[in-house]
Design a protein that fits this description.
alpha/beta; five-stranded parallel beta sheet; binds adenosine-5'-triphosphate; binds magnesium ion
């Protein structure tokens, strides 16, 4: 069964009731028919209903059919317009076609011919409109592809630049690494000689050493990126990684006046993965939380909770929060609100990639001015 709203729509404009009503009766079984007894009323329906075809008488009191045709074209350049002309009024019909009518029928009309002409013209409008919609869709698709391409090009050129950068950074880092070890040895020696222990210095040196090692590992990872297959995943303890990250960012929290708390479960939370990458993923989220809370001198709580099959690493801050409109963009590469403050906008993009490479997920909840919570969920080993 055809529902009335699925039917093609036809608008009939004629001041004479006879032809108007006989057209209504003729077309009713196959079309949703609207009628108007003058041009202005017809234009109103045209705007409101967007019919698939308009049948308009040429000779009408007030606004004539020809003037009406001009106005119809201004409102809808694509709707098919069929003019009803007086018998033998060929010149007027020609004029109407020249002005943009699609067809004409002489009065009195033949029912079969009328059905044929309307069928043809309704089809014409539909094809035109789908063509326009398709063109608009193609244009939108093109724009999206161009945007994606631009983003990929930026990433590709960044890849190129970073290969050189990684190479150059390796040398000074090796020197720092050497000196840190030398200092550690000297400290140990002087402690032995003086019979004293300086725990603070040893601890601080240890943190420097750990982080320089992390930098070196990151560099190695970047250097091998693309040429060697990703390093094979090994059993790693997430709680241990979280503890190391928290220790590493401790001085940053102190410097920015943010209280950093952690609540880490006793279970090692073992999963198969790459500890350097997981460390980097969690570090990005904690650093963001510290940066967001610095101005308010707020607090950041890092928790690690082990469930049967997964571990949740939650980073909760009382910072400036994220506006709802920006929430959908924060994982996009290069999205940053820290322009001029050294933000590249790659942190969360990398985090999400690493988490997904480990078959995990990342979730964010935020209330502007109140704070933000990120939850990284990772599947545990043996599940
Ligand atoms: N905890 C948070 N509180 C408020 N806003 C955040 C938080 N975490 C992320 N954001 C928002 O998400 C954006 C993107 O974060 P992302 O870590 O990807 O980049 P970034 O921190 O700006 O720069 P980068 O990490 O590359 O130095 C940030 O600029 C910030 O607007
Ligand atoms: Mg960041």
């Amino acid at each position: 069964m055809t529902i009335a709203s699925d039917l093609p729509q036809v608008l009939v404009i004629d001041d004479e009731m006879g032809p108007r009503e006989s057209l209504r009766m003729l077309l009713k079984p196959n079309y949703q028919v609207y009628t108007a007894d003058n041009v202005e009323a017809g234009l109103h329906i045209l705007r409101e209903k967007k019919p698939d075809a308009v049948i308009s008488d040429i000779r009408m009191p007030g606004t004539s059919g020809i003037d009406g045709l001009r106005k119809i074209r201004e409102i809808d350049p694509h709707v098919a317009v069929i003019m009803l002309t007086g018998f033998g009024a060929l010149e007027t019909a020609k004029e109407a076609l020249r002005l943009g009518a699609n067809d004409y029928i002489s009065k009195p009309f033949d029912a079969r011919e009328m059905r044929e002409v309307i069928g043809r013209n309704v089809e014409r409008t539909r094809i035109q409109r789908t063509g326009i919609n398709a063109a608009a869709e193609i244009k939108e698709l093109n724009n999206r592809l161009l945007k994606e391409l631009a983003q990929k090009e930026r990433l590709a050129s960044l890849g190129q630049a970073s290969a050189e950068f990684v190479h150059d950074l390796g040398n000074p880092l090796t020197i720092v690494w050497g000196y840190v070890q030398l200092l550690a040895k000297k400290l140990e020696q002087s402690e032995k000689e003086n019979g004293t222990t300086n725990e603070t210095s040893a601890k601080e040196l240890n943190i420097i050493e750990q982080n320089v090692r992390l930098c070196r590992e990151l560099l190695t990872m970047w250097q091998s990126y693309g040429s060697v297959e990703a390093s094979p995943h090994k059993p790693i303890s997430v709680t241990q990684v979280v503890r190391e990250v928290v220790k590493g960012v401790g001085p940053m929290a102190v410097q920015s006046g943010v209280e950093l708390h952690c609540d880490i479960c006793d279970d090692p939370c073992t999963l198969l993965g790459d500890s350097v990458q997981i460390m980097r993923a969690i570090q990005n989220v904690i650093i963001n939380a510290l940066q967001a809370s610095a101005e308010k001198k707020g607090s950041v709580v890092v928790s690690c909770t082990c469930k049967d099959f997964y571990v949740d690493v939650r980073v909760e801050d009382t910072g400036y929060g994220i506006a709802p409109a920006q929430l959908a963009k924060i994982f996009d590469p290069y999205f940053t609100t820290k322009q001029g403050k050294s933000g590249t906008g790659l942190g969360l993009y990398i985090t999400k990639k690493v988490v997904e490479d480990h078959n995990g997920s990342i979730k964010v909840e935020s209330t502007p001015q109140i704070g933000t919570t990120f939850t990284i969920r990772l599947p545990l080993l043996n599940n």
